[in-house]
Amino acid sequence: MTATKRRYSASDVARAQFNKAVRYLNLDSDMVEYLVTPKRELIVHFPVVMDDGRIRMFTGYRVHHSTVKGPTKGGIRYHPDVTLDEVRALAMWMTWKCALVNIPYGGAKGGVQVDPKQLTRNELRHLTRRYATEISILISPEGDVPAPDVGTNPEVMAWIMDTYSMHRGYSTPAVVTGKPISIGGSQGRIEATGTGVMFTALEAMRHLRLDPNNTRVAVQGFGNVGSVAALRLWEQGCKIVAISDVNGGIYAARGLNVRDVLRHQKEAGTVTSYNEADAIDNTELLTCDCDVLVPAALEGVIDELVAPGVKARLIAEGANGPCTIEGEDILLDKGATFIPDILCNAGGVTVSYFEWVQDLQGFFWTENEIVDRLRRIMLENFHAVWETALEKRIDMRTAAYTLAIGRVVEAINVRGIYP
Ligand code: NAD
Predict the structure, then answer these.
(1) Ligand 1, atom 36: nearest CA belongs to which residue?
(2) Is the pLDDT of residue 338 over 70?
(3) Ligand 1 pocket, 261 CB below 6 A?
(4) Ligand 1 centroid to residue 220 C-alpha, Å
(5) H helices within 48-104, ranges in order?
(6) Which in 12, 127, 221, 386 has the greatest CB count within 10 A?
(7) pLDDT for position 6
(8) 355 CA to middle of ligand 1, Å?
(9) Mutate to test the pocket of ligand 1, among 90, 109, 150 (most ligand atoms within 8 A of CB)
(10) Is 141 exposed, middle or buried (0-12, 13-18, 19+ CB in 10 A)?
């Protein structure tokens, strides 16, 4: 899972997935070049005064991949391995994700090279306020709306919203999504990505004739996405046999009580010390005996070394880009079905869109309204991808890409190229 182990960068993977889909679209090479080229990329180096009074320099990024279909949308990641290449890939994935689920956004992403766990809350707040100021030339409710990603959370979004609002002189909730409810956040946003994973995974199980009550699920990553996906699938009757976090994993063939694992993780800070299960490492999680695998941590974990050992029939990609090109080819040859990331984890950006709409209108919806609309969007798009895959005899990811890229191309053609 470390960057050094990977043969291909996240951008290589994103571009290869794009190139594979482009073969099914009748596009000329100029258009292809336009579609893969990021619109703008900002690199910022900035100082933060640490609690001991020393100044530490940090590097951050914000990339806009496409603004063709509307303001850009994309999370902010705090992780020591963040690079421009990774942020660029994640921004491009956001463009296709938003187009696939038909929400009026282009793709963006941001990140800071930092391990947030090594900073005090005070240092993290200073870092966030300074980073928000550095990228404030790009973000706005009309232009670019960040959200949480790995290593960031509603509190970080609140600090960004507050920083931006202080500079404007008035409160601007719609500048970020994934905020706490008390400052304009949406009901259901925290759970949205994991809930969307559950909706698409259950629908795929139905098509694959997997009865949830007899289905064994392994979940890698027990953060915002993984913990909610595990909990929701468990509530639907699935047997969650394995769960992991950055420290390692746990396995119980009889199934884990996910609520109890969550409680343990809150107390202990990790799942690994949960003692009603066997200890496993993260590779063993990916290759354990299960029917459904939900990678919900970082990119590139299912590569050509891991894929031959994967036993799951269904891969529900909670994370962005968890599978390398070779890893996916090996699994497709073995007959596995993918719910590709741009579909499977689109619940987060969908409810972020609901949050932005509510903030702009100053009118808020109930949790039931949010979950109903989310379910409808996830299922409609699942079916669109499933049927495209069947009709064109292509895999689910390529089907999702052809739909998404086709919509962006249509928008480019309708708008025309300026001037
Ligand atoms: P998070 O920080 O809340 O959780 C990440 C989890 O992965 C944690 O349990 C962490 O311990 C684990 N992890 C980190 N490094 C690991 C490693 N090397 N091996 C195994 N586990 C590791 O992050 P999140 O928001 O849940 O995001 C997870 C993935 O989902 C990312 O790929 C992110 O881009 C994607 N995603 C998130 C959202 C969202 O709304 N949060 C939306 C769409 C996609």
Answers:
(1) 319
(2) yes
(3) no
(4) 9
(5) 84-100
(6) 221
(7) 58
(8) 21
(9) 150
(10) middle
- Tell me which amino acid residue 71 is: P
| CA–centroid distance, residue 361 to ligand 1 (Å) | 31
pLDDT, average across residues 40-57: 98
pLDDT of residue 1: 39
Active site residue 109: yes
Percent of the chain with pLDDT over 70: 98
Domain 192-344's class?
alpha beta
Q: What are the residue boundaries of the structural domains of the chain, listed by start?
A: 38-182, 192-344
Q: What is the pLDDT of residue 321?
A: 93
Residue 101 CA, chain-centre distance (Å), reads: 14
- The reply to whether 38-182 and 192-344 are identical in fold is yes
pLDDT band at 327 (very low <50, low <70, confident <90, very high): very high
Q: What is the pLDDT of residues 95-108, one digit of tens each?
A: 999 999 999 999 99
- Residue 148, ligand 1, Cβ within 6 A: yes
Residue 199: in which H helix or E strand, if any? helix 189-207
> What CATH architecture is 38-182?
3-Layer(aba) Sandwich (3.40)
Amino acid identity, position 44: V
What pLDDT, in 10s, does the model give residues 202-238?
Answer: 999 999 999 999 999 999 999 999 999 999 999 999 9
Instruction: Give the mean model confidence (pLDDT) for residues 9-14.
Output: 89
Q: Residue range 331-346: average pLDDT?
A: 98
- Whole-angstrom distance, CA of residue 108 vs CA of residue 93: 9
244 lines ligand 1 (CB under 6 A): yes
H or E, element range at 29:
helix 29-36
Give the integer Cα–Cα distance in Å for 217 and 203.
Answer: 15
| Whether the predicted pLDDT of 276 surpasses 60 | yes
Residue 2 CA, closest ligand 1 atom number: 18
Residue closest via CA to ligand 1's atom 19 equals: 246
Question: Residue 226 CA: which ligand 1 atom is closest?
Answer: 26
Where helices occur in 339-395 by DSSP H, the ranges are: 341-344, 347-361, 367-392
Ligand 1, atom 34: closest residue by C-alpha: 320
Q: Which of 69, 73, 97, 109 is catalytic?
A: 109
The pLDDT score that the predictor gives to residue 304 is 96
CB of 181 closer than 6 A to ligand 1?
no
Q: Between β-strands 55-64 and 106-113, what pairing exists: parallel, antiparallel or unpaired? A: antiparallel
